[in-house]
Amino acid sequence: MSLVPPARAPEAETSSEVTEYELKASMLGHFLGYTTWPAGSFESASAPVRLLVVGKDPFGRVLDAALGKKKVGQRSIVVERVAKLPDEITAHAVFCGGLDPAQRLALIDLLARRPVLLVGDAPAFAADGGCVNFYLEGKGVRFEVNPDAAKLAGLSLSSEMMKLARLVKTRRER
Fold this sequence. Notes:
The chain is of the alpha/beta class and 174 residues long. The protein is built from 5 helices and 11 strands. It has one domain: Rossmann fold (3-Layer(aba) Sandwich). 25% of the residues lie in helices and 25% in strands. Strands 1, 3, 4, 5, 6, 7, 8, 9 and 11 form a 9-stranded mixed beta sheet that branches. Helix 1 (20-33) packs across helix 2 (61-67).
């Protein structure tokens, strides 16, 4: 599996063009494949990677279609959704959907130092302590990585992923 370079998000002029969230869903699948979780993160060798979308789900069925048959090694990917910030999260990866800024920070704080790949698409999400953040540049979908947040979570992100990312530092204490 190879991580694609930053992708373009063309405007939807015809039904054959890829939407922004189709690109993000595909890239999210690649991020899962390029993440190594610490030993003991999974219940068994065949346990699935659990991805939780917290807040408003901008993907809809696009995420299920993109990840439904995808594997991370031998593991399937299970997508779950919750509308509100839960008290406890047991997923391996979390996408922060449409949460207000205070809830986003609460989610980042809840998952700090836990082996969870935290991905978002809000301004400064990675700088606030998320692991990966999508952003738009022109018509392109790009991503930034906060290596310190990933390390704090005990995650290892592949060098292939890192070389395609814009690297950011955490700008606040946690």
